[in-house]
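Sequence and fold
=================
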Amino acid sequence: MENKGKSFFAKTSKGKKVFVGLSGGVDSSVSAVLLKNQGYDVTGVFIKVWQPEFVKCDWREDRLDAMRICAKLDIPFKDLDLEEEYKKQVFDYMIEEYKNGRTPNPDVMCNKAIKFGGFLKFALDNGADYVATGHYARSVEREFPISNFQFSKKEFSNSQELENRFELLAGKDENKDQSYFLWTLTQDQLKHILFPVGHLEKLEVRKLAKKYDLLTAEKKDSQGLCFVGMVEMKDFLKRFLPEKKGDVLNEKGEIIGYHDGAFYYTFGQRHGFIITEKTPDEKPYFVIDKNIEKNTITVSEKLREKNIFDKKEIEIENVNWISGKEPDLDKKYQARIRYRQPLQSCKIKRNSVLGCFNIIFDEPQKSVSFGQSVVFYDNEVCLGGGIIS
């Protein structure tokens, strides 16, 4: 028997109540249409998140567009204020990570704490069966042998004890797939989550929006973090992490310049610091190390020659397996260390001493940054992920 599974979006919908997170964009708008057409009892919810006063953000216009979509579809509209949760769990986390010299991933934290944290809790507390978002990802429910989560078709057909589990799959549109940002999801969450546009290409979503005469059909996709706005990250961070002048060192530990604060710089960065001890050829310098405690950064002219940041093995912590079970570590999987990076073949090894996992890639990985997410795949199935430590 072949275990194809069934899309959770395609389950019986009659009488099921779903709260759709309406951002005012085209993806969530089309999600609401598709759900209503399938017979769900749909309510639109606009989530208000925190932003600093000095940053321009179009949230009021987005909220108005969300309200108009609800009026067009004749569905209820609700506001959900998660400003406090967003400030603490997304923004403060981001600033603290930069302060400690790490590279945060606020999009992952927003999904974990807000969309599938506060929003999901709000929906369930108010009688909803599911929440839905416009993410380009898919969820499927399958049966697995209880004793052996990783199985062959033969093992599956001979198994007597089965259990239902939900798998997170990459979105059909490879250019828009957002499963990378959803690796923290659990079984308890996935059973209450729908991804109505995950099986579609972006172009198809736009066409559907035009078909149903939605005002968001031509609306541009939002870019980046709303609370940052259209400013450089360093200029934004300066408002929360005041400048702190420090030394720029060469590979010998000699002072050759100065900088504004070690926490502003990322590995491989080649600008934003001042070199006072010039070399005759004046080759560009790249950041190869930083010491947050001493407030120093170390730079080198030989970044490309030495492949300083190329790593075949990295250590990760805070690991989450979406299935609730550790995968078969004898198998090879794929992983990516940044959004939209082509999948890289790897092995996963448990580090019993440190209580974490080591990832061994077939090929060296460039620009590995502490604090970023590593996300694992078994072909189209997103297995989970962890944080580079």
In short: The chain has nine helices and 19 strands. The domain at 243-304 is CATH 2.30.30.280 (SH3 type barrels.). The radius of gyration is 23 Å. The first helix runs from residue 26 to 37.
